[in-house]
Amino acid sequence: MDDEQIIFGNNLRSIRKKRGISLQEIADNVGVTKSFLSQVENAKTWPSLSTLKEITSYLNISISSLLEKKQAADMPVVKKSGRKKLRYSSGITMEMLSYPQPFKQMQPMHFVLEPGATSGGKEYRHFGQEFVYVLKGTLQISLAETRYILQSGDCIYFESSTPHSFVNPSSSEKTEALWIDTPPTF
Predict the structure, then answer these.
(1) pLDDT digits (tens, 9 = 90+) for 46-77
(2) What's the pTM value of the predicted model, to 2 decimals?
(3) Residue ranges of domains in the chain, CATH in brackets
């Protein structure tokens, strides 16, 4: 258990309780169990990326809002050592490349996918657009019924409302990508 996971769980619980929403209500609307959400709030597990997106979408919040202690909103520089990281049990690590700001229009992230890492068992969608530039390795992105294989140096731009998912199809090599969402959803 790391500090980000504890902060994440505490913030999720706090937001849920302030809004008077039960674990069961979120579970019913997101398609997970109440006990799973309890484990997330108690920093015992991480949800998959697709489940996390569904939780934050249901609560109408960004993922980064769940990671913040209290960062200065006007900080233009994020040092490598100060990046907020989300580590998923599915083998994905996301590093936030900017601090959350109330009126920010895009969100740059550095994704690292272990061999076989996936966004989750199902496609998801949300409002906005995404740009992905593969820095290292191979990334398979599915958009609706079409699969795209991207290698180092390749990029893709798509509407986030298109059902999408992604995976590192390699069994031995990590994938790294610069990922930009607009508007910010993480």
Answers:
(1) 888 888 888 988 888 877 777 776 544 556 88
(2) 0.69
(3) 3-66 (1.10.260.40), 80-182 (2.60.120.10)
